Amino acid sequence: MGNEKDLGHSHDSAPRNDAHGVSRRSFMKTLGLSAAGASIAGKATARPGGPASAAEGDEIPINGPGPVSVTLKVNGGEMKTSIEPATTLLETLRMNLGLTGAKEICDRGSCGGCSVMVDGKLTASCMMLAIDAIGSEITTVEGLAKGDRLDPVQEAFIKHDALQCGFCTPGFVVACRALLNENPKPTLDEIKHGISGNICRCGTYTNIFNACLEASGQAPILDGPVNG
Ligand code: FES
Ligand code: FES
């Protein structure tokens, strides 16, 4: 799977990270700007909490290069932490907030292991700065179950044995949930396209497709158990 592949959670074939305004290129540019901003003492423009741009003469908040205090809306609540401005959303979730469901696998937007929803949109959290998620509703795999009641996607993954090692599973569950939120009854082809940004190295795709069909109230159309 190429690095510039459609990470595909939507049906318009727009790359997933582009769909959220965070292409790999812009992400790297952002990091570059952060570094440049840090080196221009007194003139840095990084957020958080501040405006994306300011009129000439406005006082521009300076953040970094040291840790900054941020509040993120995660799984229906607010979580506060302190991070370096260039910290990714994935690192912040895992290392600062103790939400380790999203996995760091490729760390370059190619595998979907770090999938979360940001304002309902499937997002590779390794490709987004945490400060860019301020003000957005972030949903991780930990936020899908309601108390003891699993999300139907989680139930269907269990029923269809849609995992082997399980390392990719949280990302696939979030990707399927995001797809079904946009398209409650996807065809098999739409499922394949919708979760095509996620990679399962164990090859459990057939069972994942069946789980997604089941979670959407449709009969599985592929005989299982089949891993391949
Ligand atoms: S770890 Fe983020 S896409 Fe692979
Ligand atoms: S179940 Fe092992 S990588 Fe998907």
What is this entry, summarized?
With 228 residues, the protein is α+β, with helices and mostly antiparallel strands. The longest helix is centred in the N-terminal third of the chain and has 16 residues. The site of one FE2/S2 (inorganic) cluster has 12 residues, from loops.
Description of the structure:
The protein is of the alpha+beta class and 228 residues long. The protein is built from seven helices and five strands. It has helices spanning 16-19, 24-39, 89-96, 152-159, 169-182, 188-194, 205-215; strands spanning 68-74, 77-83, 115-118, 121-124, 137-139. The two termini are 16 Å apart. Residues 1-52 have low confidence and may be disordered. The structure holds FE2/S2 (inorganic) cluster (2 copies). One FE2/S2 (inorganic) cluster (FES) is lined by residues 104-107, 109-114, 124, 126.
Q: Layout of SSEs?
A:
Elements: H1 16-19, H2 24-39, E1 68-74, E2 77-83, H3 89-96, E3 115-118, E4 121-124, E5 137-139, H4 152-159, H5 169-182, H6 188-194, H7 205-215
Parallel strand pairs: 1-5
Antiparallel strand pairs: 1-2, 3-4, 3-5
Helix pairs in contact: 4-7
The chain binds FE2/S2 (inorganic) cluster (2 copies).
The site of one FE2/S2 (inorganic) cluster has 11 residues, from loops.
